[in-house]
What we know:
It is built from 12 helices and 11 strands. By secondary structure, the protein is α/β, with parallel strands linked by helices. The chain folds into 2 domains: 4-217, Spore Coat Polysaccharide Biosynthesis Protein SpsA, Chain A, CATH 3.90.550.10; 225-331. Strands 1, 2, 3, 4, 5, 6, 7, 8, 9, 10 and 11 form an 11-stranded mixed sheet that branches. 43% of the residues are buried.
Amino acid sequence: MKARENLPKVTIMIATYNQEPFIGEAIESAMAQDYSNLEIVVCDDCSTDRTYEIAKQYEQKDLRVKVFRNEHNLGRVANYHHLLYDLANGEWCVMLDGDDYYIDESFISECIYLLENQSQVSTNIVACLAGFIELNVNSNMQTIRIPRSGLVKGEDAFKKFPETWMNHGSFLYKRSQAISVDGYTKDLFQADAELFLRLCLIGDVVYCDKPVYVWRLHGLNTWSAGDALALLDDTEKLVSSVSSFAITIGFLDASMFERLMVRHVKISILRLGDEKSFKKRFHGLLFIVKRHPKEVVLHPRNLLLGLLSVFFGQRLLNSTVDLYLWLKRKLNSFVVTDKSHA
């Protein structure tokens, strides 16, 4: 590793709102990073609990920590935008939500090392993507999503999304490039995915093959099972936004966006299986077919998953998907394993 004065500055941005039980762990996990040229910027979006007061205490414990509070509530994505555009100073940035936390103290150091090492191969690297653990607090189940290490052309990373699972807590990107692609400007549930896809259209991505943080899923930060159609609506906006951006930079391969929509329709179909009511699952599938007939009827896998979701629900569907993932694992750019969290 280079001497401290030559290391690029990295900002861990922590966006938080009403996360009093979690914010301390989030900040402490950022403080535990062994990377030397680091700043930690926390922005509270007018919490009504003690989130801000708890976060503010860490300024006295670590000079790298800076805590801000918005004058009025901006909303989730607007707070991300404020952090990235106005508060962060690092050359490289990563966004951590206030209810998540890092488990690998060398995450930043490892990414910077990989970025510098791979810069000899590509001069247009815009990000480093590591793995993460998806922890369902209610069921105590964790899913580990780990990328296979190496340098990936941005277009190839784009083509494999969302099979190439990502979450912004393990996504270190060049701040200037994220701003140049208007990251976090659309109020989307999948705002981090939109930023990832936009960056893939302008540069390459380095993958780091280990999980580095925990993404908590709990009742306050996740959609309910009945929101499969809301997810589809958000996905349509996501694809539209990214395709419009692609046109502005002269990227005209429409087939990439068609495939992206097909894969996201599959995700919405999978979410239908969470719904307990057969009637709601059935009408949900009809709605999806009506909105995206080609993406369902002309793609046997989506059609099969749709029928399984409707008639058997999540139990059998999970078994089918697990088998599919096992068969595809060697070809997939991410390894996915499910483990019970004791």
